[in-house]
Design a protein that fits this description.
single chain; 379 residues; mainly alpha; two-stranded antiparallel ribbon; two-stranded antiparallel sheet; 12 helices; 4 strands; 4% strand
Length: 379
């Protein structure tokens, strides 16, 4: 505004971003309902109880809400501690390696088995560990972030170690999410465009292509994505069933609980492909509502990052928002046949305890950042 001076004043803790809280609550509610709807037939067939997965998801939702309330009340500056950050990084790396002590599930070792038939997936924690650790390192670097050797490469190395261990679990999708979010944080922190996009980005793309073509099952997924009907009973089966579900839902859907593909056609429909069941039962309108909610989430996350009290809070907000945004984009792209099939859950909606509780705990951190924002004063 011409003729007026704007000062930036550090604001005291205020109200959380109520719009973000409402979006998270809505997505969580939709997720619990859709997990019940998508899993009821499969659950009845497996355990003679249609509510098994619903009850577990509801329990994890409650635990996640408690975790969110706790982290929402903790000043995010408390995480800016060298011993805490290095300790979290080391513990996360140990947990990621610990999965190899447990038997594989569906050919992959990604879970730590817990008593009572429960399990914990450390890679869900690892994504946010990298965000917090990089935010700490990047704010310490200052202008050194503009140096390729002193700033960019060391930060990418920290993220790459975690991503490499995740990749060894046959989890290219989450490893890719981790590196993409790290790339975004480093660039936003002030790394030079020519370094990030002229040198680093091509190397990361080449690495992703190399890992894809070096593994027979990843290569099979790539070729079946191009033409899933080439192997309709094998690698193309899940994507074909997803497309059938989305197509049969039409504009308004068949109605909540009325999916046909969940009746043992779609493998575990409450997991990564739950969006196709949403499309079948709630139609294009339901899908657009979900997409709109995630777009609104990203918008609020960006706004929080821009209004954060300091660069540390801004970087954490960028990282957390990017994780949710990238996972949402990948999941919906996979379900709609826009990219090769990969195992990325839809945040807040897909079934899974580790993912839900840790995501909600991260939302508490984001909400805490929203409480501490800059105040503009006109003079």
């Amino acid at each position: 505004m011409r003729g007026k001076k704007l000062d930036i004043k550090k604001g005291k803790n205020g109200q959380i971003d109520i719009w973000l809280f409402a979006i998270i609550s809505t997505l969580l509610s939709i997720g619990v309902v859709m997990v019940y709807s998508a899993s009821s037939y499969f659950s009845m067939f497996e355990s003679n109880d249609s509510t098994v997965f619903f009850k577990k998801q509801a329990m994890w939702a409650v635990l996640g809400i408690i975790a969110m309330i706790i982290t929402m009340r903790i000043d995010y500056h408390n995480y800016r501690n060298k011993r805490l950050m290095y300790g979290l990084y080391i513990v996360t790396a140990i947990l990621l390696c610990a999965v190899f002590l447990f038997p594989a599930t569906k050919g992959a070792q990604r879970w730590i088995k817990l008593p009572g038939g429960m399990s914990f997936q450390p890679s869900e924690l690892a994504k946010y560990t990298v965000v917090l650790f990089l935010a700490y390192k990047l704010t310490k670097l200052g202008k050194n972030i503009k140096s390729l050797t002193k700033g960019v490469i060391p930060c990418l190395a920290y993220a790459g170690i975690i991503a490499g261990i995740i990749l060894s679990q046959k989890n290219l999708s989450i490893a890719s999410v981790t590196m993409m979010v790290s790339f975004a944080m480093i660039f936003i922190a002030g790394a030079r465009f020519k370094d990030m996009f002229g040198k680093i980005a091509p190397l990361l793309v080449l690495a992703a292509v190399g890992f894809t073509f070096s593994s027979p099952y990843r290569y099979a997924r790539l070729t079946n994505f191009v033409d899933p009907w080439k192997d309709p009973a094998g690698n193309g089966y899940q994507l074909i069933q997803s497309l059938y579900a989305l197509g049969s839902g039409g504009i308004t859907g068949l109605g909540l609980g009325q999916s046909r593909q969940k009746t043992m056609y779609m493998p575990e429909p409450h997991n990564d492909f739950i969006f196709s069941i949403i499309g079948e039962e709630l139609g294009l309108i339901g899908c657009l509502v979900i997409i709109t909610l995630f777009i609104a989430f990203i918008w609020r996350g960006i706004k929080i990052a821009m209004e954060a009290k300091d660069s540390y809070g801004s970087l954490i907000a960028v990282g957390i928002t990017s994780i949710i945004g990238v996972q949402c984009l990948i999941n919906i792209a996979v379900v709609t046949g826009s990219m090769p099939v990969t195992g990325v859950p839809l945040p807040f909606i897909s079934y899974g305890g580790s993912s839900l509780v840790i995501n909600l705990a991260a939302m508490g951190i984001l909400l805490n950042i929203s409480r501490q924002k800059q105040v503009k004063i006109e003079r």
